[in-house]
Amino acid sequence: MLEIRNLHVKLEEEGKQIIKGLDLTINAGEVHAIMGPNGSGKSTLSYVLAGRPGYEVADGSISYKGEDLLEMEADERAAAGVFLAFQYPIEIPGVATMQFLKVALNSQRKARGEGELSTPDFMRLVREKADKLNVTQDMLKRPVNVGFSGGEKKRAEILQMAVLEPSLCVLDETDSGLDIDALRVVADGVNALRSPDRAMLVITHYQRLLDYIVPDKVHVMSAGKIVKSGGKELALELEKEGYAAYAA
Amino acid sequence: MSVTLMKTPAETAFACAFDAQGPLASVRKSAFQQFAETGLPHWRMEDWKWTDLRQIISKALPPAAGTHAGAKVIDAIVAAAPFAGVANGRLVFVDGQYDAGRSALPAGVEFATLADAGSDRLVAGSTDPIAALNLAFMSDGAVLTFKAGSNIDAPIELMFVTTGAAAASYATRNVIVLEEGASATVIETHIGGEGEYLHNAVTQIHVGENARLDRVKVQEEGLDGIHLSNAEVHLAASAHFKDFTLTMGGRATRQQGFLTFEGEGTESHVSGAYLLTGKQHCDTRLVIDHAVPHCTSRELFKCVMDEAARGVFQGKAIVRRDAQKTDGNQSSHALLLSDEAEFDAKPELEIYADDVVCGHGATSGDLDENHLFYLKARGIPEQTAKSMLIAAFAAEAFDDVESDAIREVLTGLAEGWLDRRKGA
Ligand SMILES: Nc1ncnc2c1ncn2[C@@H]1O[C@H](COP(=O)(O)OP(=O)(O)O)[C@@H](O)[C@H]1O
Ligand SMILES: [Mg+2]
Q1: What pLDDT band is residue A244 in, cutting at 50, 70 and 90?
Q2: Under an 8 A CB cutoff, do A53 and B369 touch?
Q3: What pLDDT is attached to residue B2?
Q4: Residue A224 is assigned to a structural domain of this protein
Q5: CA A181 to chain centre
Q6: Which position among A123, A228, A244, B63 has the lowest Cβ density within 10 Å, counted as fewest Cβ atoms?
Q7: Residue B184, pLDDT score
């Protein structure tokens, strides 16, 4: 599903190198975790996958479902099934959450040549998914992420993911700022989306999340590269020994 | 009379056309004298720095009243007016003159045309040159009285159609009086056709004790039209006044609001939005005069400028020495959608009392890249995402409008503007 080859990324403005030769392959049905110290470039990788401006791919390639991902605009990537759950979800004053979700879903459907969902069908869909994630009607009435607590923002991201049903889910530190109950709710939401045609990339700083979302593979990222890969037991090892050995 | 300053073709046309005969001759005469002392306001005058009417009104637009346009042209303009389904009664003025055939009013509102109402209702107190010009040449307008304790909730619309059929100027003047405890919603719609013209509109408002007025003004003048307007607002004790203006039309707009708190415990919200493109120009000037204690004033303007459009917001709050416990806050925010678009804000506070809370703020910027990316990352195409963000920006000012039905119309107007922009 996703094949990253020799990826080099620098900041467009400062020219600073952040990702320095990263390789990663994720097949459909797999869940991969990336762990690593702060500043190692994990969020940068997630932004480059989602198509955020400001980053320059100096070398390497990313192919997604056999297509050149880097040639696609952010909205085209989303319509093709790429979803990023942001480490810091963005507040958008004045844009109602429900309207935002509806426009997003229908834009994606339109781009894929599917018909638009009617308002009642859409409302039903969102309500059903929101209940499972403890996202209240009150939250849905507010503007996108505005006035949400840290935990509410993370749950709202997962709700968006559940509604949009992407093929490649990139979760950037979705666990940060969550208490144990919220973590469980979020993990249940993510696990419900696991399927043979879907791949997931779970970025986290702590092993804790991986008790709930059990990965097929774990990678350690440091200074812009993957420096070690292994099975889920690698996460436990990291938890015990810390990142000192991988410091940038 | 000093006419030495009157030297542009437009000023000369006003001077030639002025005829101090007929009803209200003495009021008109002193008003014209007052106007003649300054002539058209220009950039060297403090409050007119950004809006030089000598430049803007570059050719003679002689005062006129009555239309040369055919019924079909007028019908087409009226049919395109936005509040058809919302207004509960409508008074239509075409090229400065009352059009009884297109007007209807519900029971309970006292109405006279300005032409019939006589002079007692006309307050000539303003020292503003544009208001003086209006008084000198005013042709018609609505004099509305909402009786004590009456509650006319469904909106009454005053519609000013300027056809542009003649290169002329039209001066209209309304007087809106809410007696004690009355409550009403009044919409002012200004729409225009093609062609060069000038519309000078004055509205005098008196909100009595415990009375409430929601006023909504939508300005969609023709794109070669010039819109000058003055609202002179007097608020008695415990009155509530809400005023919202949407400016989309006109080549150049100067709108002024002079608001005086005359009784304690009164609240006013003045808000507005601009949706401007091309070379459109809109300058709003507000003077909020806290003459008495315990009053609250809020001003919020959200201004969107695309292409080479230019927006100006000048808001001044005066807090007199006795006006203790005044609570005043003013802000203007500009969204610049192109490198050529411009916005200037001039907030002023003149405070003579010591126990008050007053503030102001102004911001100006383009669309937030992070907001745009977040929407795109969810699959929303760039143009749609931009439209959503622009609508959200402007809508904050719509929130001040009380009526859901009116807010829906405003939202629809903004959507129409955004669709035209997207299509361009
Ligand atoms: N837009 C940016 N401007 C400046 N520095 C940045 C920017 N994005 C990332 N960086 C820098 O790049 C490095 C990697 O950041 P990031 O990808 O956020 O790491 P992680 O998510 O692993 O903590 C850090 O040193 C960070 O300061
Ligand atoms: Mg990060």
Answers
A1: confident
A2: yes
A3: 46
A4: yes
A5: 21
A6: A244
A7: 96
B129, B51 Cβ separation under 8 angstroms: no
Q: How far apart are CA A201 and CA A217, in angstroms?
A: 10
The 10 Å Cβ neighbour count of residue B345 is: 21
Please name which ligand lies nearest the alpha carbon of A52: 1
CA–CA separation, A162 vs A191, rounded Å? Answer: 11
Contact between B371 and A53 using a beta-carbon 8 Å cutoff:
no
Instruction: Let me know if residue A201 belongs to a domain.
Output: yes
Per the CB < 8 Å rule, is B380 touching A144?
no
HEC assignment per residue over B19-50: CCCCCCHHHHHHHHHHHHHHCCCCCCCHHHCC
Judge whether A143 and A92 are in contact, CB under 8 Å.
Answer: yes
What spacing in Å lies between the alpha carbon of B379 and ligand 2's midpoint?
A: 22
> Is pTM beyond 0.90 here?
yes
| A177-208 burial code (b ≥16 CB/10 A, e <16) | bbeeebbebbbebbeeeeeeebbbbbbbbebe
pLDDT at B121: 62
Sign of CA dihedral B7, B9, B11, B17: positive
Residue B9 zone, left/alpha/beta (φ > 0; ψ -120 to 50; rest): alpha
Q: How far is the CA of A173 from the centre of ligand 2 (A)?
A: 7
Asked if this assembly's ipTM is beyond 0.90, the reply is: yes
Domain extent for A26: 2-95+167-246
Confidence at residue A246, expressed as pLDDT on a 0 to 100 scale: 75
Q: Say how many domains are in chain A.
A: 1
A112: closest chain B residue by CA: B379
Low-confidence ranges of chain B (pLDDT < 50): 1-3
Looking at the domain assignment, is residue A150 inside a domain? Answer: no
Q: Assign residue A31 the CATH number of its domain.
A: 3.40.50.300
Query: A93 to chain B nearest CA, in Å?
Result: 7
The pLDDT tens digits of the residues spanning B248-301 come to 999 999 999 999 999 999 999 999 999 999 999 999 999 999 999 999 999 999
Res B5: pLDDT: 59
Which residue puts its alpha carbon closest to atom 25 of ligand 1?
A39
Neighbours of B401 (CB within 10 A): 23
Q: Residue A206: pLDDT band by 50, 70, 90 thresholds? A: confident
Task: Please report whether residue A6 resides in a domain.
Answer: yes
